[in-house]
Amino acid sequence: DVALSVPDKQVESVCPFCGVGCQLTYNVKDNKIMYVEGRDGPANEKRLCVKGRYGFDYVHHPQRLTKPLIRREDAPKSGDFLMDPDNVMEIFREASWEEALEMAGGGLRKIRDEHGKKALAGFGSAKGSNEEAYLFQKLVRTGFGCNNVDHCTRLCHASSVVALLEGIGSGAVSNPVMDVAKAEVVILIGANPIVNHPVAASWIKNATKAGTKLIVMDPRRTDIARYAHRVLQFKPDMDVPLLNAMMNVIVTEGLVDKDFIASRTSGYEEIEKNVAEYTPEKMAPICGIDAETIRYVARLYATSKASMILWGMGISQHVHGTDNARCLIALSLMTGQIGKPGSGLHPLRGQNNVQGASDAGLIPMVYPDYQSVADAEIRSKFAKAWNVPEDSLDPNPGLTVVEIMHAIDRGEIRGMYVEGENPAMSDPDANHARHSLASLDLLVVQDIFLTETAYLADVILPASAFPEKDGTFTNTDRLVQMGRAAIDTPGEARQDLWIIQDIANKLGCGWDYKHVSEVFDEMRKTMPSIAGITWDRLEREHAVVYPCEKEGDPGDPVVFVDDFPTKTGRARFVPADIIPAAEQPDGEYPMVLITGRQLEHWHTGSMTRRASMLDALEPDPTAQIHPLDMAEMGIAPGDLVTIESRRGKVAMWARADEGTPRGAVFVAFAYYEAAINTLTNAALDPAAKIPEFKYCAVRVTPGGTE
Ligand code: SF4
Question: Which residues does the UniProt record annotate as the domain 4Fe-4S Mo/W bis-MGD-type (predicted)?
């Protein structure tokens, strides 16, 4: 009886799921997690959502990988697979670590030496620690010898980061989520925090009860709308016309903060000129929000004492994702709504360490702390820190996630190392991604389960689950937090950090890290933002916010108070115009597909589908459709429906949802048996190379095959 069991150990750590970064305690007995409790962390104050509280038993699942596996020579390798975790031994054979590491690291080395450094690429993980992310990118840059390293930030907030770096010189948030309590007005756009950041949503709900006016803007009417002062359910894809119309109101009604614009920004004239044409009257029929409502929320946002904007993937996952974020930044700059408590910009980060993995350099254009690979001075600095010849570091930015798949098709990339990512499920046009991965000469996958990607691997390295390792993790608020090992890895599975080191050494790197804190200390030396954070302090305090440049600094939860971290100290306005989605509905494919997440499952489902409580709550894939559309199509709730795009076809159960806009269907991407990303469009935002997960053309028909 779990409730009556007395744990023999309590370990203080952090939730492995979303970017809120709730602190928790693992209660362990006989190397088994019995239950989880919330701790009094800065982001959660003892709260946990259903995933954090009940989603832990995936670590004990019988499908955990416990031995290295090597693909049998006669086993087929095809993108047209039907994965079956129970037939694993027909496809793979068990191997010793020695054999597997030689095949993995030695194989990657052979490809590098025979086909050149750019014939290799690596995907690191936002589910791993900062130290793992740092070592992984260092391995690609010094072991492979190229910058072909990326991770799931490319699929979530890459466009926000591009716009933020370009506009204000920093890719992270200006204020923590908790600051909503200090805001008079909060705009929440393209985000569904009750589902994706549940504890953060609880702070937003509390704030509204205390008087904060919440403006929810989203093509889907989600549960947070119940707490809103105004709900703007605009037409899918019409973010830029709506946001430009708000700026038009602010400019024409003289609501801009002239002093802030003059002293802290550049490029205002350009944006003023650009939004002149975007009058609320002209934009109303385009975005589906009446002119008076646009005026009302623009005035409210501009004139409040403190306004915050929080956003999610509804903003970022478009071919105009960078433009959407540029508009949000411009709104805050023209009104001076940044750099004060309760006043700022907060892109809600997705995975528990996507902020940290990005900071640590799992990005093809930048080294740790967003330092450009193209800058000779910076390259020289990293060459010294990493003890490698300066000319061995590639001066050219590497390829991004989707670009890497196309480079495989062209025969340019022949070997990949994938640590803890699942591109066979998470990439857009996933059938294409699966075929690309299957065609590699060598695919090395390091994971805790036989994921859809691992199914295509030549070598599989069994790794550690979150509660099995020590390391630091950075949440959406820029809090660097200590995660601690609570249980041992099963069987012969090993800590990710040491697997990465072993592969690096097979490539000739000559590393000899003995403790995770040594990696963190090296990170501090190359990353000014965390230079002042010591391992001892993290052990003591559990969490320290950056920027923290000198030891003893308290860290700054609210930044940009006096200036922006740009060369001039000023922020920059960047105007945006309407760019339509890459694929529009038509007679053949008349509906819009919107993909996203759901409360009970996490991303591609590799962990939460194996968490018994969560899978019992949401066991099957569903298509959320407006009830009026369902009636027109002759579909009842619970019926099987088939969704088809130009790229693929899946069947699932229909669920009536009045919040889904007419003419659209919403599907979560966590279900391998109805992998919705086999339908999505791989069209990319030109600046950030993020795919358009939030909009493509599909048709929905009754019936289908389970
Ligand atoms: Fe974990 Fe996020 Fe839920 Fe907190 S809100 S318990 S970090 S999934």
Answer: 8-63
Residue 563 CB-half CA count within 13 A = 6
Cβ of 17 below 6 Å from ligand 1 = yes
CA-proximal residue: ligand 1, atom 1 (nearest): 52
Percent of the chain with pLDDT over 90: 96
Q: Is the CB of 20 under 6 A from ligand 1?
A: yes
For the stretch 121-156, pLDDT in tens is 999 999 999 999 999 999 999 999 999 999 999 998
13, 14, 20, 204: which to mutate for ligand 1, most atoms within 8 A of CB? 20
Is residue 614 in contact with ligand 1, taking CB distance under 6 Å?
no
pLDDT at 521: 98
- For the Cβ of 48 lying below 6 angstroms from any atom of ligand 1, the answer is yes
Does ligand 1 lie within 6 Å of residue 435's CB atom?
Answer: no
Look at residues 423, 442, 435 and name the one whose alpha carbon lies nearest to residue 154.
423
- The response to whether residue 15 sits with its C-beta less than 6 Å from ligand 1 reads yes
- With bands split at pLDDT 50, 70 and 90, how would you rate the model's confidence at 2? low
Task: Work out the burial of residue 385: count CB atoms within 10 Å of its CB; fewer than 13 is exposed, 13-18 middle, 19 or more buried.
Answer: middle
Give the mean pLDDT of 344-352.
Answer: 94
pLDDT at 1: 52
Ligand 1 atom closest to Cα of 352? Answer: 7
Helix/strand/coil for 691: strand
Q: For residues 493 and 476, what is the distance between their CA atoms, to the nearest angstrom?
A: 30
Does the predicted interface ipTM exceed a cut of 0.95? yes
Q: Report which of 480, 473, 471, 570 is spatially closest to residue 531, judged by C-alpha positions.
A: 480
At 187-215, the pLDDT tens digits run: 999 999 999 999 999 999 999 999 999 99
Centroid of ligand 1 to alpha carbon of 42 (angstroms): 13
Amino acid (one-letter) located at 30: D
The C-alpha atoms of residue 130 and residue 116 are separated, in whole angstroms, by 29
Task: Pick the more confident residue, 2 or 595.
Answer: 595
CA 639, CA 620: separation in Å to the nearest integer?
Answer: 12
Residue 364 Cα to ligand 1 midpoint, Å, equals 28
Find out whether the beta carbon of 607 lies less than 6 Å from any atom of ligand 1: no
Q: Tens of pLDDT along 213-243?
A: 999 999 999 999 999 999 999 999 999 999 9
Ligand 1 centroid to Cα of residue 352, in Å, is: 8
Q: State pLDDT tens for residues 607-637.
A: 999 999 999 999 999 999 999 999 999 999 9
Instruction: Report pLDDT for 78.
Output: 83
CA of 597 to the centre of ligand 1 (A): 14
Average pLDDT estimate for 369-387: 97
pTM: 0.96
Cα-to-centroid distance, 23 and ligand 1 (Å): 9
Ligand 1: atom nearest CA of 15 is 1
562, burial (CB in 10 Å: exposed 0-12, middle 13-18, buried 19+): exposed
Residue nearest to atom 2 of ligand 1 (CA): 18
Residue among 17, 45, 47 whose CB has most ligand 1 atoms within 8 A, to mutate: 17
Backbone angles phi, psi at 409, to 5 degrees: -60, -35
